[in-house]
Amino acid sequence: MGYERREFLKKASLATAAISLGHSVNAMSSSSYNNIIGANERINLAIQGLGRRYGAYIDGIVAPESNARIAYLCDVMPGQMDKAAQAVGTKIDYEPKLEGDIRKIFNDKDVDAIFMSTPDHWHTPGAILGMQAGKHIYLEKPCSHNPWENQLVVEAQNNYNKVVQMGNQQRSSPQSIKIIHDIHNGVIGKAYKAIAFYASGRGEVPLPVKAAPPGGLNWDLFQGPSPRKDYMHDTWDYNWHWYGWDFGTAEMGNNATHELDVARWALDVGYPRHVDVKAGKNHFKDDGWEMYDEMLATYMFADDKVIQWDGVSRNGYQKYGRGRGTLIMGTEGSVMLDREGYELYDRAGKKIDEMKGDAEGGIGLGGGGALSTAHTINFLNAIRGMEALTSPIDIGAKSQMLTHYANISYRIDSGFDVNEQTGEIRNMDAMKLWKRTYEPGWEPKI
After folding, report:
1. What's the pLDDT tens digit per position in 230-246?
2. What are the sequence ranges of the domains in the chain?
3. How far is it, in rounded angstroms, from Cα 30 to Cα 185?
4. What residue ranges in 313-374 does DSSP mark as E strands?
5. Which of 3, 180, 341, 367 sits at 20 to 30 Å (Cα–Cα) from 258?
6. Residue 82 in contact with residue 107, Cβ under 8 Å?
C-alpha cells in the first residue's frame, strides 16, 4: 500500500470520527458491546460472491491496520472461486479455503464476519442467516430485494445486535462527509432539491433461452430464496440484473442506490410523501432486457423538498458533465458531488470552493478504490468498537426504499402516496409488490 493510500485512509478515519452528522452515524447500543472483538484480536472473515464487486474489499481487508484474515472464498461457480483465489493470492501469504455453500461457512464458529456480494435476491436472506449464526455483515447494495425484506433486515440487526454495514461506500468519503456537514449548516442556504443521476452506454443483451446451466454452476443454490425455474442462457453472469424480477432490482437497485442515498443524506429527509415515475425501454427494443433502461423518478418530501433520479442505462451522453453524481440545489448556491469530491457554487453559478480526492469506480463494472477501502476498514473498526459505522443498515435501508418505490411505480404504471412515518405505500396495487414469493423453506425469518 503506497503512501498516498495510507494517508487517505488516515484522513478518512479522522474525518469520520471528527465530523458528527447525527443521522449518518449511529452509536452502538449497550447490548452490542457484547459483540465487540478486541482491538488486537484478528477478525476472521469470508467473502460470499466472487463476481465483479468482491475485489473492492481486498485492499481494506489486507491493510495491516485491519488485522483481518480471509478464511473463506465462497461462490456457487467453482471457476469464480479459482479466479478469486489467484487474484487474492497476489496480496496475501496464505490460502483461504474455497467453499461453494455459504451455509457451511455460517456453521464455522471461527468466522467473525461475512462480506456479501451476491445477486440481489440473496442479500437480505443471506444477511439474516449470517446474523443468526453470530456473524457481522458487510452487505452490498441493494440491501434488500423488496420493501418487506428492507424492513426485515433492519429488524434482524436490532434483534441480533450484529454490526451490519451497507455497501454505500460514498458515506466513507471525507469530501462527502465534509460538504454534507456544511450543507446541513447552511453553506448553500436551504437545500431544497437534489438531482441524482447516472448515464451508461450498456449494450444489447441476448434474448434468454432455455439452456443447461454452465459447467459447475450450482443453479439450485444460485436461486436460493427465489422460486425454482429452468436455467436461461446467460443468466448467471450479470444479466440476471435485466432478466425479470426474480433475482435483480433493475438499475434502481444496481446503481441508483448510491446517488439516491447521497441525495437523501444531503437534504436530510426520511421517507417521501409522494412518488412519481416516468420510465421505459428505449434502446434495443427486441433484445433480452426486460425492464426500463431509462427512468426519471420524482420524490416529494415534507418542507417542499424534492429528490429526482435521472438514470439512463444505455445512452452514455453525460448531460450533467459526468457519468454519475448528485447535484444539490439551495436557496443561496449549489453543490455538485460525486465519488471524487465536490464543487461548491454560489447563487450566481460561480465556483467558490472544491475538494477532490482519489476517484472511485466511476460507472465501470465492479468499481472499487479508495472509498471502498475506507468503507471496508470502517466496517472492521466498527466490529472492534473503534468507530461508528458510516453506513449502518437502518440508514442504508431507508435510502434503499427510494429504489423500491420507483420500481414498484414503474411496474404498476402509477404514482402513489407514502406514509412518511412508516414508509408504507398508500396504494393497494403497489402493496401487492411489497413482498415477493419465496422458494419453500427459504423465506427469511427472525
Report:
1. 999 999 989 999 999 99
2. 3-171, 173-206+235-361+394-431
3. 30
4. 324-330, 333-338, 341-346, 351-356
5. 3
6. no
